[in-house]
# Entry
Amino acid sequence: KAGVTQTPRYLIKTRGQQVTLSCSPISGHRSVSWYQQTPGQGLQFLFEYFSETQRNKGNFPGRFSGRQFSNSRSEMNVSTLELGDSALYLCASSRSAELSYEQYFGPGTRLTVT
Amino acid sequence: AQTVTQSQPEMSVQEAETVTLSCTYDTSESDYYLFWYKQPPSRQMILVIRQEAYKQQNATENRFSVNFQKAAKSFSLKISDSQLGDAAMYFCAYRSLTGANSKLTFGKGITLSVRP
# Structure
């Protein structure tokens, strides 16, 4: 069974641009969560989607948004990029939204903002 | 809000020895999950072990075991017979069972190196 895939793996953008990251969950998984990982702040929760609906959102500005498609694939978008948005963005999928289910992480997308 | 604290940023262990990674958390809830995740240099985060707060018995997965002290809000990971492949960053994480919030709250992580 294929794991969680994220594309692209690496991305370089300049300040003010916008970026879209993609996450394909494990087949059969319907819940997708996004996390931002930086050396200073560690791992922080961005948002979670289940069945195309955003269930939870972390404490990030409105420049960070996401969506989920009917096939459970998810995208996150960051508009008006800032230097501080440079991070590893991790996607995690889970079979359902039930809290007992394990989250499986993808390899991440390394975003560098210059 | 829940917080997770990993106070040791780095640790080192000799191959075949045992090492314990510390984690404390703060919560007012009585039911929750605790996790240890491993993130090797390749960056793929994988689950090492999980503990349900309502279970008194400490979780064990092969060479990995936890010491869960609910009253003290402590959740340490013991790695026995350390192997070179255990070198990675280890994160302690908390998940609430209240409401529909399935987010993971992570500690800052600890970098474990294994000396041959």
Summary: The first strand of chain A starts at residue 5 and ends at 7. The two ends of chain A are 37 Å apart (CA to CA).
